[in-house]
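Researcher: Go.
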Amino acid sequence: MVIEMIPAKIRVIKRKEQEGRGETSPPKAKEAMREMVANVSQWVNEFQQKKREETTRVLKSLIEPTAQTSGAEA
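Model: Structure:
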């Protein structure tokens, strides 16, 4: 069995080079990331709102028949 080793490229970044670089992502990439985060946040908010509405509806449906039955007995 022959294993061929492919040399990996390793780049050493010195502190001075790293400090001079500034922002690592181009503005377009940051803008795209913000847009994705905003979309996901909106989806989460919509999901939470639907859950709240569903919970409210279920609680009301559970409470109303109980109130009608107790009122009919009196």
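Model: The chain has a mean pLDDT of 79.
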